[in-house]
């Protein structure tokens, strides 16, 4: 298992670095593919519980939401989501007894969780994308640097939580959803996020106070994203969301925390750094 995880990381990390730094249409295309794969995983998981998620409608709405985000139209993105919600409700009404309230609720949940979540990767990557900073490791756009803050902070949280929890974990954090998570591991993850984002913030020449604050926020939100996906999987009765990534599970397994932390970093930056 560990060998497959390492192999997937060795292949995936260079691709991730290239796609993020290249940006433009390649990054948007990659996010679209990830979104559609995640939506398929979501649909497949809930099918095990006889939940009929609106598959085709979800594909269309998720793609439209991403399109609005790529064009930088956050207001239109919100309008598209509202429209998607209405379409789900209309679909239930006109179908007679074919779809239930649960089908509608999970369809809306999926579009929110996946479509809106992944769209913020585009919004964050293209924030201040015309501005560039020069660091000791090269030149990159501000949008790319913001995205790396969210990514590295989230990955540090996961890594620190795992090792601290394995060594010192005693008290269960949320045993009903994820029995392996501990309070001690979560504290370690919080410290890891703060350290990682603070150090990366120095490289990107960001105010230390804001780097620490973002690390704190990411450290709190990341495990919530993880637990949210675990709750969905537990409801569906599956161990992993998919099998696409050897040793890691599916797309949602790899991006569960990212879908929570990236929006938080995006709004933090717009509220406090770009004012």
Automatic annotation (TrEMBL):
Keywords: Cell membrane, Lipid biosynthesis, Lipid metabolism, Membrane, Nucleotidyltransferase, Phospholipid biosynthesis, Phospholipid metabolism, Transferase, Transmembrane, Transmembrane helix. Pfam families: CTP_transf_1. Its EC number is 2.7.7.41. It is a multi-pass membrane protein. Pathway: Phospholipid metabolism; CDP-diacylglycerol biosynthesis; CDP-diacylglycerol from sn-glycerol 3-phosphate: step 3/3; Lipid metabolism. GO terms for molecular function: nucleotidyltransferase activity. It is found in: Cell membrane. The keyword Magnesium does not apply. It catalyses: a 1,2-diacyl-sn-glycero-3-phosphate + CTP + H(+) = a CDP-1,2-diacyl-sn-glycerol + diphosphate. Its main location: membrane. InterPro entries: PC_trans. The chain crosses the membrane at residues 25-46, 53-72, 78-94, 106-126, 186-206, 212-231, 251-269. Belongs to the CDS family. This is Phosphatidate cytidylyltransferase. It comes from Pelosinus baikalensis.
């Amino acid at each position: 298992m560990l060998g497959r995880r390492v192999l997937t990381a060795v292949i995936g990390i260079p691709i991730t670095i290239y796609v993020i730094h290249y940006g433009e249409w390649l990054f948007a295309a990659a996010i679209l593919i990830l979104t559609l794969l995640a939506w398929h995983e979501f649909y497949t998981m809930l099918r095990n519980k006889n939940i009929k998620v609106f598959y085709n409608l979800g594909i269309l709405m998720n793609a439209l939401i991403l399109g609005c985000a790529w064009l930088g139209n956050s207001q239109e993105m919100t309008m598209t989501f509202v429209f998607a919600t209405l379409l789900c409700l209309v679909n239930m009404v006109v179908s007679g007894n074919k779809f239930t309230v649960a089908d509608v609720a999970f369809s809306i949940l999926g579009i929110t969780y996946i479509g809106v979540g992944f769209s913020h990767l585009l919004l964050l990557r293209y924030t201040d994308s015309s501005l560039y900073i020069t660091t000791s490791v090269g030149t990159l756009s501000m949008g790319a640097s913001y995205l790396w803050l969210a990514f590295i902070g989230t990955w540090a949280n996961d890594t620190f939580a795992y090792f601290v929890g394995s060594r010192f974990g005693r008290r269960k954090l949320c045993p009903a959803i994820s029995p392996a998570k501990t309070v001690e591991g979560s504290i370690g993850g919080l410290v890891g996020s703060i350290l990682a984002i603070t150090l990366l913030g120095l490289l990107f020449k960001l105010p230390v106070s804001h780097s620490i604050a973002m690390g704190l926020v990411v450290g709190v939100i990341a495990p919530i994203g993880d637990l949210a996906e675990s709750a969905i999987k537990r409801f569906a009765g599956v161990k992993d969301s998919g099998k696409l990534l050897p040793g890691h599970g599916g797309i949602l397994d790899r991006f569960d925390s990212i879908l929570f932390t990236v929006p938080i970093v995006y709004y933090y930056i717009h509220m406090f750094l770009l004012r």
